[in-house]
Predict the structure.
Amino acid sequence: MSDSNKIIDQAVSSEYKWGFYTDLENDTAPPGLSEDTIRFISARKEEPGWMLDWRLKAFRAWEQMTEPDWAHVQYPKINYQDIIYYSAPRKGPKYNSLDEVDPEILETFNKLGISLEEQKVLSGVAVDAVIDSISVKTTFREKLSELGIVFCSMSEAIKEYPELVKKYLGSVVPVRDNYFAALNCAVFSDGSFVYIPKGVRCPMELSTYFRINAINTGQFERTLIVADEGSYVSYLEGCTAPMRDENQLHAAVVELVALRDAEIKYSTVQNWYPGNKEGKGGIYNFVTKRGICKGDNSKISWTQVETGSAVTWKYPSVILKGDHSIGEFYSVALTNNFQQADTGTKMIHLGRNTRSTIVSKGISAGKSNNSYRGLVKIGREAEGARNFSQCDSLLIGSTCGAHTFPYIECDNPSAKVEHEATTSKIAEDQLFYCNQRGINTEKAVSLIVNGYCKEVFNQLPMEFAVEAQKLLSISLEGSVG
Amino acid sequence: MLTETQVKTAGWGNTEVQALRARALAFFEEKGLPEVKNELYKYSNIQRLFTENGFRETELKTATDTLSLPELPFATSGTLVLYNGVFQPALSVLPAGVEVQAAGTILNGSLAAQTFALPEPDAVKALALATASEGVALLIGENVQVAKPLLVFSYTDVEDASSLASLHVLTAGKNASASVLMLHAHAAEKRFFAQQVWQYFTAEGAALRVYDMQNEGPESYTINHFSALQAANSTFSLTTSSTGSAFMRNNVRAEHAGEGCHTELNGLFMPSEGQHIDNRTFVGHMFPNCTSDELYKGIAAANGKGVFNGKVYVARDAQKTNAYQSNKNVLLSREATINSKPELEIYADDVKCSHGSTTGQLDEQSIFYMQARGIRQAEARKLLLLAFANDVFERIPDMELRAFFETEAGQRFAALYRSR
């Protein structure tokens, strides 16, 4: 036991490695939320009138809603009037080449290991980098546009593709969906917009790096991905935020629409600042992510690796409306110190012969709490629907908690729903087996935890899988090699 | 043993209990009947249950001399008769070593506090505690071994749309061992809403098995509150077979107060036409080295609605806990619904906990296999259902009791395919 105690101590003492702060001049709105703030944001972003109306409608809805308290997390009450709702890096002309990009921003990306040049040349990944709400640089756009693929920031999309945005924005996560979604609708700053035309297979992984940068800035991205009939896209979302003492609110909304025969694969690695080892600071991550398999034979797959944030409240969901459509959810959630995570998924089966798979791996260490909360709903008409869910929890240390709250609602007699969950610690005999073969306990824990998460990592694109493993190691430093 | 009048006059004369009842009433008045937004009653609409049926308190008859007891195909060790929740000494026979008192006489200090505790904000239980008439305290003496099951027979005979509640306590003394079979019946064509609170205390090393056959008619709307507090090395098991009642809710709670405890909860629930059966269980692992095992199987036919919501809670210091929970359901018709919510809440690391939940239908291949061998389809389905239900009954160690439960379930299955 003394060995594992040592490991826990070391794990608890590891500091946030991405905690640097880029000194950028910001163009910020005064703190507080009112109709004026929304008009300010909308005006600053040079938005058309219909967008402002939409935002104001959402704001009025939000004012009448109350903050939900059902999740298994505790945090001090958020004062929504203390938050800065808009912050953009100093506005300059749009750059034509990387040389023109603010060198400090490039430096930031280099520290994160996503040098734009490198990405461009080596990995063939188009990066739409978002620093504090404004899309700074979009690469590979020409190449994508040859295929008719639209990959741009949400602000641009609102100006350039208003018909597409009007048709799909808010169609999966309606304005009144929940408290944080309504807030996002009212104040969303920017985000990514992707449209894949009929029959096009996107030749590269699309990727966005989000950064929360300025002090006290809520980050409210809005992402919308539409895959038209027969198309395919894989989208990567990676997040790191610098160290900051005040809690920062993050309430994003992601909407995915897959039409007939289309497939969307959405992968997330989230490594926001989880607070220090006393539980001070850290990000509040209250995100609404939902996809709809609108057409027959469509598929949406969510993969997430969650190692950051002080409080996480996130349920990437799939509405399986088209017949024979498929929903998948693969998740690794790691909590350490005083982190709290309440995460899971919703699979709503409406169409016939719809299938869903849920694999959730939770790892709790330190004094953290990690909950899986999922809903599998089989509608009356979902003939032959099939679901398999597996939720495993691993406990490291005796002061953390792991919880499972699955909801299974079955209204169709031809459906098959299976759920299983286990909770345990790393078995002594597994550690002993490794020790006996000359692998020290630290490396053994690393090996076992990585093996435990393999099922999920296998779903990630290769570059991401490597990063995910790295993040896991950092988050559990000392116990994972 | 007390006489009937003594039980009546002793009706909550206990001032400590009166204060606790007042507290429960205040709690209920503050919270009101739970809405469906309440996680505890998410799948059971209690407000609608009350508004649609207009249950109200009525003057209850407390004695009878014309009650016929159920005939059982096996011997029991004794019989305890409750009429509208009131103990009937003239009809009851108790085995040696088992004593009956009025519940209030033993509910003092921690026993009272435990019985009237509301560990979860459950306003329905608060209402039951506040309005319950004083029931019995069944005391099983130290080292007493009751070999045959003790029958507890409850008969409800009230005006239409009556609401009634009663509270009973059962204590199993040190190293005692006993099993209790609960049977229910009621007067025809009179709807009623009944709440029974049963508080069990198992002393060190005791083993208590409770079997509840819930096969009342469609006039019955019932909420049971079964709570057990287990001292070290004791065993508590509860088996419910819920096939009757228009509305049935079992609130089951077992909590460990010492090391080495074992808890076993088994349930078969079969909601059919117009029925709603909801099982809510909570197993509280508060001490190290305890085990628990739960198996609930649901069969929903016609427009029946079944619910299983089980929670396993493992406290920070409850190391070396082994807790298993399994819920398997079969849907037999288009209109049937099953909602399942198995939960784990774990704060200790050296534990083995798992839960599983499946919902599906009878295997068509198995049915075809039997049909190919000359077994008619209805018969084949009945056989598969029996096999499905037997997983629960197999856990009953007493062979006669097991057969009794199997027969009852078999009749239900046969009726199911006759009515089609």
Observations:
- The interface with chain B takes residues 70, 378, 380, 393, 395-425 of chain A (CB under 8 Å).
- The mean pLDDT of chain A is 80.
- Residues 23-424 of chain A form one domain.
